Amino acid sequence: MNYTTQMDAARRGILTKELKKVAEKEKFDIAELMKLVAEGKVAIPANKRHQCLEANGIGSMLKTKINVNLGTSRDCMDLNMELEKVNDAVRMGAESIMDLSSFGDTRTFRKKLTRECPAMIGTVPIYDAVVYYHKPLKDITSREWIDIVKMHAEDGVDFQTIHIGINRRTAGRFKKAKRLTNIVSRGGSIIFAWMEMTGQENPFYEHFDEILDICQEYDVTLSLGDACRPGCIADASDISQIEELVTLGELTQRAWDKNVQIIIEGPGHMPLNQIEANMKIQQTICKGAPFYVLGPLVTDIAPGYDHITAAIGGALAAASGASFLCYVTPAEHLRLPDVNDVKEGIIASRIAAHAADIAKGIKGAAQWDHEMSTARKNLDWERMFELSLDPEKARSYRESAKPEKEDTCSMCGNFCAVKNMNRILNGEIVSIFDE
């Protein structure tokens, strides 16, 4: 193989099978896509060892992609259930799965994903290091943190989130800033606590060049984690968040200098009126690198419904430049999501992504809606189900309240405006009560 990473290949003018596949999916000119990958504005996460991967591109000019977080925990460690969630997520259109397992035989699960799952696979080495070494946090060495990054690369994961922006300097600024909800990122809180207990520099920051060498060897995309993402709307756009983003911007250029693809992670909880500005700031500071956002959640008061608060923020974020939405389920802040929670989160996130794609003018996005509207005009129920994001739910709703006449629904019956307009415009008589 005469290239190291997808970025390296694009810069050399080499057409990889992954780039070709993405261009076909997106109906995108190959030469233009190659230029965007070369510039870092599109990432194609594709570990050389993930042989069953169905490649996807991440960039603001492409279809908005969604990620589904899954994995075991101490309280819920049923691997079969997690695999069921993975399969459901892929079937429902998720392009990416992040394995956030924090208990049990994590490596077996991770290898099974990269061996069998066609979605992009992401991980967070910080979580796995705590599980793998099974010793007090302060006793994990800098070398051991980096070794986990290497292990995940060897296991075939396509992208890794490393919480690298919270270094000694930014941690000092954070302590002075006095946030309402402190650090809500799991990885960010772990590495912050490690730095406080050991007095050492963030090992991912200190040994960034070595991590880049690992990424070059396996073609791993780095997702630069947002340790200081706001955990409530009161902390949105504060000094800690912005200073970390500046650090991530500096590291982005260092990665690109070594042909390593980068994704930038972002907020978090954020009021609606700050989302667009945050997307533009990120694009400026990080030179157009794809932005990966959790939500953003636009209010803090909706536990049990945070898939909705995240979809509202996600639609606006993606329409304003975000490339990649991390789904949020109704279980957010409350528990590990079950199979139904995963489904609800995926649908909400896909609605947000599609709404943004319409706003951005992505090829084919509005056509889907046009076909649905045509089916509705024709009262073609089967076609409406086919075009639905969730055909099963749409069909079950209609069948749960059968109308007297098949060409209407139980809401309007003979008052159906669509049916009556079709008739009157066709020169027929409309008689509502006599039918």
UniProtKB/TrEMBL annotation:
GO terms for molecular function: 4 iron, 4 sulfur cluster binding; phosphomethylpyrimidine synthase activity; zinc ion binding. Substrate binds at residues 69, 98, 127, 163, 185-187, 226-229, 265, 292. Its cofactor is [4Fe-4S] cluster. Its EC number is 4.1.99.17. It catalyses: 5-amino-1-(5-phospho-beta-D-ribosyl)imidazole + S-adenosyl-L-methionine = 4-amino-2-methyl-5-(phosphooxymethyl)pyrimidine + CO + 5'-deoxyadenosine + formate + L-methionine + 3 H(+). The keyword Hydrolase does not apply. It comes from the Bacteria. Binds 1 [4Fe-4S] cluster per subunit. The cluster is coordinated with 3 cysteines and an exchangeable S-adenosyl-L-methionine. GO terms for cellular component: cytosol. One of its GO terms (biological process) is thiamine diphosphate biosynthetic process. InterPro entries: ThiC, ThiC/Bza_core_dom, ThiC/BzaA/B. Catalyzes the synthesis of the hydroxymethylpyrimidine phosphate (HMP-P) moiety of thiamine from aminoimidazole ribotide (AIR) in a radical S-adenosyl-L-methionine (SAM)-dependent reaction. Belongs to the ThiC family. NCBIfam families: PRK13352.1, thiC. This is Phosphomethylpyrimidine synthase. It comes from [Clostridium] citroniae WAL-19142. The lineage of its organism: Bacteria, Bacillati, Bacillota, Clostridia, Lachnospirales. The gene is thiC.
